[in-house]
Amino acid sequence: MASPEPETRRKQRVYTATVPRIDVTGQFNDYNASDIENRKIMRKREAVLVRWDTDERHFYQQEYRKFYRKIKLDRDLLNYKYDWTNKDCHSQCFRIIAQSLQSSRSDKMEDIDWFIEKFYKNEEHTIGIGKYDDTYTPPARRIRITKNITFDKNDVIPVYSDLPGETSKNLEIPDNFVYEYSNVNFVDKSQEPDLVKAMELAQQEENLIKCNCHSGDNIVSCYENKNCPCFKMNKKLRKFQFHIKDRPRCEFSSFKPIILAKHTDVMFDNIGFSCSEVCACAGKCTNNTLLLANKKIFPLEIYRQNPHVGFNIRSSVPIPAGTPFRTFTGEIRESVNVSDEDLDYAFKVWQYNETRLPVDLKDMKFTGEYKRLLFELFQRDFFICPTTCGNVGRTAGHSCVPNVEILRVYQKSVSPAHINLIMVAREDIIPGTPLTIDYGADFAERLKDVCQCGTFACMGGRKYSDILIVYYFSFKLAPCVAKLHELKFEKYRDTVIDVIKEEEIAHRAKRRRLQAH
Ligand SMILES: C[S@@+](CC[C@H](N)C(=O)[O-])C[C@H]1O[C@@H](n2cnc3c(N)ncnc32)[C@H](O)[C@@H]1O
């Protein structure tokens, strides 16, 4: 039995949501009670060499079946269409990716063939975590550090190390890997009294935003319902979005893909508001962008291939463009309580002078005390900090051509303590592709010369830095990005792992049998 965690290391945590963490392995208490050295020992003890054919294949098949069943049979997801070749959202996704590239690099645009020749076919430069044409082929032999980092049987995320020359004996477990796992945000009571106060005040009827919508057993249609207070707030927040004439605004609903309208300040300009468990619909409605993410159904794995980059994540099933597939959780802290070390993992979620504040307080029927506190909080910066406790989101690597975007969705009220971060696929993501985000301008300086994303537009790819690539119009670049994506998909279709084919064939056969009866 591990020794108890010293009192000083324990925090008085206030969790901002009510999703419980389930300890099915019996190990979580041990793990939680250990100091970092003990946690490392525990992880090392668990680590084993595994082989794809004999040990892992079966596990992946099971996970895939579980995923497929949930997508098809979960009653809450009946309106969700799992469509990973939805042509409608492609052009917009690629335009957004192209716009981001265009803003950070500059040069005249050449034709598509030149672009493909230069950046796609040049294998030498497509190594590293961002290997752009990757498809999912797990290594035949690898070290499995843990079967499930989450300690929750409904959220199985294995962790592997694929570093060359590594064995379960000489395995290195870095300090930053032995964090506590939590799928909900929390605040430290002693450090952030104002956030705790905001959470308390938001319980009062005037300050709590919830709905009374219900419709028996069917999925409740809160979205587009003018009488739903949560949808009204969701719509109100949409007004703060930067908007391009004739282009649709980004929508935050439960089942529609989230397609951004522009690339800059994506995090601060695109905000949603969702129904939650305190509503009559319990969040099982069309106005809950967190619904799918909180189901945690997309099977992910954490792996390490490159010692400089450390751990990263990937999915073993395709993630369609615009899908909010996971939340990004951690401790909500004011910037003064965020250290340099935290900045490696932290996300700024609330910014003083934010050009678009979540609400105009004058419009709200909040109590005077809550309005005063919100006004106070508006003047400070807040982060979500997963350094010591967070979920799989903290492991996403940086890429100069990221395939994931992080966005904010409020629930229950509009203080920084009510922010949730969702991880949204920017394009159809092929299994095995590293799930990457753009760490943003602050981090860019740190990664400038060392970035190992390996993508065609990597700012750290020294060889490329002297080829000035600047695209002057995103519509010219968009077809190139789309073409690269198409090539990736072709390759994926050719090499798609048997398990997916088998599962789809089995599912279709079952449906035919059922129809025949
Ligand atoms: C938020 S953490 C990501 C998870 C981290 N790899 C781990 O093992 O816990 C950020 C750190 O990952 C590494 N990293 C992420 N993306 C990288 C990239 N494209 N190139 C080089 N290092 C990267 C850097 O060390 C960075 O400080």
Structure, described:
By secondary structure, this protein is an alpha/beta fold. The chain has one domain: Beta Complex (Beta-clip-like), CATH 2.170.270. Helices cover 31% and strands 15% of the residues. It has 15 helices and 18 strands. Strands 2-3-4-8-9 form a 5-stranded mixed sheet. Strands 7-16-17-10 form a 4-stranded mixed sheet. Helix 6 runs antiparallel to helix 11. The longest helix has 22 residues. The chain is globular and about 65 Å long. The relative contact order is 0.18. The N terminus is likely disordered. The protein binds S-adenosylmethionine (SAM). S-adenosylmethionine (SAM) binds next to strand 9 and strand 15. It holds the Pfam family SET. One of its GO terms (molecular function) is histone H3 methyltransferase activity.
